[in-house]
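Hi there, hope your week has been kind to you so far. For a while now I've been wondering how a particular protein folds. I'm sending you its amino acid sequence along with the backbone structure tokens. Could you read through the record and tell me how the tokens relate to the sequence? Take your time with it, there's no hurry, and the full record follows here.
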Amino acid sequence: MSRIGRKPISIPTGVKVELDGHSMTVKGPKGTLSRELHQDMNINIEGDVILVERPSEDKPHKALHGLTRTLIDNMIVGVTKGYQTDLDIIGTGYKAAVQGKKLVLSVGHSHPVEIDPPEGITFETPSPVKISVKGSNKEIVGQVAADIRAKRPPEVYHGKGIRYAGEVVHLKAGKTGKVGK
């Protein structure tokens, strides 16, 4: 039995969960999330607890068991606490700023790079070299952070670029110059 899949999911106060067939909607203080879940999984809401059960011991059902439970739990955590991904900018003259809702990056291009946030995502810049991506949907927060990082990924010789907070970039050794004579 899947250790993750068999754990019950508790529904906190202030969160409303609706199940219509295999479509689940979770409403909470940080917003509303909806997701279509796999039709083979059995989802039971008993009071303020959600249980996910699989119909058989087949390998695909075992894989879907833990996945379905984690997707539901991520929705509940997202509408109660929300998710945040932090990025660091390394490099002389590289900086970020929020103008209205847009994120404006100056990262060595001939022009500033403007990024519009998707619905439910907000940007914050606690300092010019730090970016916070916040939202209630874990997948979208991670994807937007990856898109921002892709605008100027860390460079392997000097380490300049945009990286996740805490990301370690292994630097390559540069040329040592001519040897001989």
